[in-house]
Amino acid sequence: MVADAIYLQDYIHKGNNGKVVLFVHGIFSSPQQFKAFYQPLCKLDYSVYAILLKGHGKDLKTLSKTKYYEWINQIENLLIDFKKNYQEVFIIGHSMGGLLALGDYDALVSKRIVIAPSICIKVTWRYFKLGLLVDKKNVKDKYVSQYQSVLGITFPSSIFKKILVLPCFWQLFKVISYAKKNLIKISKPILTIQSKNDECIRRKGPKKIINNVNSHQKEILWLNKSFHAVFDTEEEIFMISKVIEFIESN
Length: 250
Fold this sequence. Notes:
Blueprint: E1 11-13, E2 19-24, H1 35-43, E3 47-51, H2 60-64, H3 68-85, E4 88-94, H4 96-100, E5 111-115, H5 125-133, H6 142-148, H7 165-182, E6 190-195, H8 204-212, E7 218-223, H9 233-248
Parallel strand pairs: 2-3, 2-4, 4-5, 5-6, 6-7
Antiparallel strand pairs: 1-3
Helix pairs in contact: 1-9
């Protein structure tokens, strides 16, 4: 089960206010996970670029061959290009994308927003269930079906073939190490968003980020009813409004 083909490629909108927002999705996901952000930002005339990370948009086998530094290079090259063409550059990442947004980019970005950054991971039954059922069609579980709509790869139905997920998680662990080393280099404003019910990220994760960056403007926005990538409707609207407020503040 995968997302519609239109979301398995970069999402690009050209605005005219001289500002661009780069979105970086999480592992196994796609630009579709940020779709609720697009219209509010486009209405404010922002340029929006939601990147499809290398290895995504195909299958687990393809992703398992992708290295973490390919994602870093992909993002950095875009940011360098944006810096030349926009007055302000903002980066928003979710989960592993949140870690990638914590790269050594202070010279290239104005502000960072990291949503559920996977810097301190945990394993719960809810998340494990996702791995078992994600390839099934017509799943009645709302949590699983909502995740299916944002996936950026095709998962094999065979339990044995799902072992291909292991190399992917090895690359995730390398991204975690990369992000931790970069925290001390960050001095630009940063907003971290975390759900208290997150099924795969510990609550100490955003605190670890905020306590180790050197930013003067840094804050955590806590969500009470959402999960890792499945958001309560009202909280999602609130989150988007707070993100816009953050990037537009002086």
